[in-house]
Amino acid sequence: MAAELHSYLMVGAVLFVCGVICMATKRNGIGVLMGVELVLNGANVNFVAFSRYTKLGLDGQIFSLFIIVLAAAEAAVALAIALNFYNNHLTIDVDRANKLKG
Amino acid sequence: MVFSKLIDDLILETTSLSLPWFSAELCLSGTIVLMLLLRLLSVDRWVPAYLIGVLGAFAALFCSWQQFAELSQAPPASTEPLVTFTGLLVQDQFSVYFRAFLALFLLLTIALTALTGIPDHEDGPDFYSLLFGATIGMMIMASANNLLMLFIGVEMASVPSYAMVGFLKGRKASSEAALKYVVYGAGAAGVMIYGISLLAGVLGTGDMSLLSERLSLAAAGGSGGLADPEVRTAALAVMLIMVGLAFKLSLVPFHFWCPDAFEGASAEVAGFLSVASKAGAFALLVRLCLALSGGVGTEGLMLAFGIALGVVACVTATFGNLAAYNQSNLKRLLAYSTIAHAGYMLMAVSAMLVMQNSGRAADFAPEIDMSIEGLLYYLAVYLFMNLGAFAVVALARNYTFSEELDSFKGLIGQAPVLCIAMMICVFSLVGLPPFGGFFAKFMIFAAALKAGQAHWFMYVVVAFGGLNTVLSLFYYIRILKTMFLDPRPEGARKVSLPLFSLEGSYVLALSLFVLMLGILPSITTGLSNTARTAAQSIVQK
User: How many domains does chain B have?
Assistant: First the structure.
């Protein structure tokens, strides 16, 4: 049982690391948001695996349902903001967001 | 049959216990729906949205006031905390204090936006819906009793804030600020939920009241220290959760968003974010720290956690104060000042954790209460002084169309009321007696000094706190020098704000509160007693 849990957690960890790398290296704003989705889904895999194999029980599945909903809400706002940025700058390259600094 | 009984019990618990305790949040939610519906019926042409907003915020303030009175009067029937919604939220004086605090702050922010007119008539309902939604999220953060509610609260507070930062449509700076905020914020939230998944999985529960017990069980099974894989995973998970909270608190090294977001956003939104979102995040941090500490066999780990928070607090306060020096934009300068203040407030949490886990928690009981009391007092004073400073920026901007420090040169000749209010707020931000900020800082430093008996490192923290207070003096005084001593440049736009105007009396009222929280003993003791009751309600004896 523990071995099965560990393999699921490994998948979650790989998703998490891919997401973090994606967030850190992508210059495209949408790419960064895709990295965030990967991280959130890594957490989802963890929760579902924990709910199957540990005493976390059904709570884990409820957690992942809420994460899916919140990820959708966050993506909606983030895409609207990215679109607003594009309208003002004609690019969504986050490196071009360099007017504010000091 | 059993299932139907379960449903009946759930309905009974929700309607008779949970919903009355949720009344403040329900008022705010109802106001959102009302504002959006009234626009559908075109009532908003005659009734401005801020009027409805003020009513809703006032109702929420009244509800939480009632709840606080009820909690204070009721005899402590049992030592079990009062939980609602099947254990998802906890209702004690601490959470109700924050609820009243946030409702009051919402009321003042709406008043400010009505005076400066930053959401124009057309956009009013949208803007206030976002503002109310974020406030509900912060209220949930303050009463969270489950890791799920922790995450939902943080997200509910963050997502509307992203949109509010980008609310000045068509401005390059605003859209850039919103993009940076959303990218950093979404990343931090993702890392935090991954940490929550690990913590909930390792400890087998999301209920925050069980965390310390489960943590000590995990520590007892193995060798106890970090060599034990379960404990190591839990420690890692707490670190990941702290990334999310540090982002909300704009602690170094997760502070990058703060100056950019504040500079791009309007001053009203920046003022709201600087106070409200910090208050919610501090409430959550205190809850999480207390939920994790107190278990048998985990004192060493939690002591290390407290000291780590102390290090972060020192670095944050020092960085914020140093970076504020060469800022030419007043909002950006105030953003670095909020970073520094987050550092001071974090010292209180660090002192609390160190004393709580020193192994002599019973000896330190009054000081543990005092550290939380200091934090709550600080937040209450911070509400008035920081909102006052941002209000001055917002009101002057309406005349000069600029938030650069240079545009405030010689303002004393044209708008003395703004300058006087700014002076009081700034002196209080520095922490000079007899202003409110002095007593708040004093309480936190006194608690940290006492914590030095538990661990020597807290003396270093106090030294850093004192050093930073001196450091901060220079750039705060620079604001005052610009406003009072520099001559008004030729051709500068005229600021005509008489003393007897709504705007003038608004900033004066805010600065009067800052002053009263320092010198009027009846108000100071009243607030500190309230804060102490709230502090005692969450610290386990």
Answer: 1
CB B360 within 8 A of CB B496: no
What does the pLDDT look like over B9-41, one tens digit per residue?
888 888 888 888 999 999 999 999 999 998 888
ipTM: 0.96
Residue B190, chain A, CB below 8 Å: the answer is yes
Residue B247 · residue B181 · CB < 8 Å = no
Distance CA B69, CA B373 (A): 18
**Residue B45 burial (C-beta neighbours within 10 Å; 0-12, 13-18, 19+):** exposed
- Chain A nearest-CA distance from B183, in A, is 7
Asked whether residue B464 is assigned to any structural domain, the reply reads: yes
- pLDDT tens digits, residue range B360-391? 888 888 889 899 999 999 999 999 999 999 99
> Could you tell me if residue B59 is inside a domain?
no
| pLDDT tens figures, B266-305 | 999 999 999 999 999 999 999 999 999 877 778 888 899 9
Please give the residue range of the domain that contains residue B525.
315-541
Q: Which residues of A touch B263 (CB under 8 A)?
A: 100
Q: Is B320 touching A (CB cutoff 8 A)?
A: no
- CA nearest to A93, candidates A3, A27, A23: A27
Element (H, E) at B98: helix B93-116
Over residues B114-144, the pLDDT tens digits come to 999 888 888 888 999 999 999 999 999 999 9
CB contact under 8 A, B201 and A60: yes
A82 to B191: CB separation less than 8 angstroms, yes or no: no
B residues 114-173 lying closer than 8 A (beta carbon) to A: 147-148, 151-152, 155, 158-159, 162-163, 166, 169-173
The structural domains of chain A, with segments of one domain joined by +, span: 2-92
Residues 362 through 401 of chain B touching chain A, CB cutoff 8 Å? none
> B104 lies in a domain?
no
Average pLDDT over residues B245-251: 94
Residue B240 lies in a domain: no
Could you tell me which CATH number the domain at A2-92 has? 1.10.287.3510
